[in-house]
Amino acid sequence: MSAEGFKIMLVDDHAVVREGYRSLLQKQRGLTVVAEAADGAESYRLYKSARPDLVIMDLSMSGIGGIEAIKRIRQWDPDARILVFTMHFSAVHARQAIRAGARGYVTKSSPPEVLLAAVSDILQGRIAFSPDIDHELAQDWAQEWANGGASPFDRLTSREFEILRLLLMGKSTEQVAETLHVSPKTVANTRYQIRDKLGVHSDIELVRLALRQGLLDGDEPS
Length: 222
Hints:
The chain has 10 helices and 6 strands; from the N terminus they run βαβαβαβαβαβααααα. It is α/β, with parallel strands linked by helices. Helix 3 links the parallel strand 3 (54-57) and strand 4.
């Protein structure tokens, strides 16, 4: 913690959204927004220079998304504290975010006090979930226990999940490769690995499974 208080970085591709919760946060004593990023790649670059105490990260952004950004930031700084703030209301997204290294997950439909409470919890070393996601995770766990198995999306690595996210947005293999700075062949091979892990045989089946699992909620098109 600096002499001025806790430093916050905001990551969201909507400037109006950032303005709204920047205003909310800076009304709180001891919180200062020191950096803002519009995508995952920018958030990684800014994190290294701003060294915030907490990152508030959206998941669905143009270019590199939140889960990939979380993974990169945590690889560079294992102690990084990251709170997901997103429209995605699904246990799949929450579990992937936590596996990537997030310390909390709050949906944008939550009241402002829920976001502020999560910020306080994480800055004090605790984990934090908004009540709706807490309930969703509990239901998901109960369903897994009843069915004797985890969600098929838990089989995906963070990189595979990011490639899946971009493909579900309608990105071509070449566009995904350019975004992630990998070869088109790597993306094509990963696409087949994703299908194999999820037990589907076509892109249509993949989209249907994503819909059933709630991966296409929020502002992400298919």
